[in-house]
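Annotators were shown the component list below and the corresponding predicted structure, then asked to write short factual statements about the assembly.
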Amino acid sequence: MQAIRDLKHNFSIPPPSAMAGAADSYLQGNIRMTLEDPELWKSFHEIGTEMIITKPGRRMFPHCKINISGLVPYAKYILLVDMVPEDAFRYKWNKDKWEVAGKAEPQPPYRTYLHPDSPAPGSHWMKQPVSFLKLKLTNNALDQHGHIILHSMHRYHPRFHIVQADDLYSVRWSVFQTFTFPETSFTAVTAYQNTKITKLKIDNNPFAKGFRDEGTNSKRRANRGSDPERLAKRLNSMVKDADQDSPPGMCRSSYEGLDDGRAASKELEDVKEERYSPWGGASDRENQGLGRESPLGSDARDMYNTEQLVPGHSTYQPYRFHEYGKSPSPSSSSLGSSGSAGRSSFESRVPDVATVPDHDSKPSAHDSGLPHCPPHTSATSQDYTGVLNMAVAQAKPTMLGHPLYAPYGSEQALGQWASGTGSSQYPPPPPPPPHHHPHHHHLATDYSAQAVHHGYHHSNVGDWSQYPLFSYSCW
DNA sequence: TCCACTCACACATTTGAACAGT
DNA sequence: AACTGTTCAAATGTGTGAGTGG
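Structure shown to annotators:
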């Protein structure tokens, strides 16, 4: 895990550079986020993580669990997770590796998962790891349960957003920071493609114990309760397996050299030497061919860096354009430097910021600056309905009572968040790391290259960015 | 025919109510 | 009365494998 950050700031606050220097400032520049269970994530990532998506919704495994520090203990924060496409392609599993199978399908309704504890004081978020265990993924575009909707055979990665806000409705005045962890990227599937992933899941997910080939059922029952041993055993077998099963023609792991500090770490590292990513074909293609094909070229990464979560309504296009213009962000120019029409200019990303779920006004995509996505993504023409994925029962009273929910029906009872980020051209996730520090994803380099960045690096923490938020006309 | 997808199933854990003991 | 621990059933989370449909 490494720190790759993209810092954006609200126009109402000093530039990131200022924040970097002010350790004690209230600018949230010190927020750190680390991924729990990174070794497990890495194990999956090295093989090519797959997440099952089902109609009724399926939990992730491993599930997202993070550690947060640097929050103001008494200030309230909201924690959000959303899933953004890794790229604009659809994939297929061919024998032992993933291959590009065409362009991505139109973006499904965009949803964001709100951590049920939200809002909670910083002390609450920092006192223990924050788990998103109950987050569910679905392929049902008509899902009524607020699950995150994804396309099968597409690649995604989760983003974690921290917003300092007393409630959901003061979010608009808040800065929020976004963190991503490269090792959490995954391919959404309706059935596992890579048998090694299946095995890893079975070996590590307690609910799948019944499928472990450790003997008969009676034996399995007898083995209950010896978790530590089993864990170690699993780890070993996992390592062995990966070693043996590594298909040819795959690219080298991007996690070589990472120190997991476990008994099996040595083994793992040894394995990594020979383990190849199932993205060999696809990734290579992306890295080389696709990268070239992309109209964005190197800007693709910039897009990645500057992605923004957008609270807003799908149908309602963002309203922040003018507002943004009013208050040029110190970082905007630098952000804009990322490039060409649409995707890379800062303006093109403006739609990704807070939007106004105003049912009465529906600016055109053009006017509103709907995500100027790469041509290959049809996201611009998609319904970016963003349902803040919070179950009513779980939501806190301060949020529930808000009239905001009224227009969206009892089921969702949530704010609508729209984002144009999903369509950005993302760099291939399992990066063959040619020349970066083991603890720094290649993106880190890109991030630091962003003009908005200041010098400090989070080590071992997630990528992060700080997003400007704009006032909504109504919520 | 191929392949992505759905569904019922057996097996697992988790959750929470009920109860007993301190 | 309050707290803790145990038990049990229901709810829920798993991958499997057969079947379906485009």
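Statements collected:
1. Confidence is low (pLDDT under 50) at residues 1-28, 215-276, 281-387, 389-475 of chain A.
2. Residues 52, 58-59, 61, 191-192, 198, 201-202, 205-211 of chain A lie near DNA strand C (CB under 10 Å from a C1').
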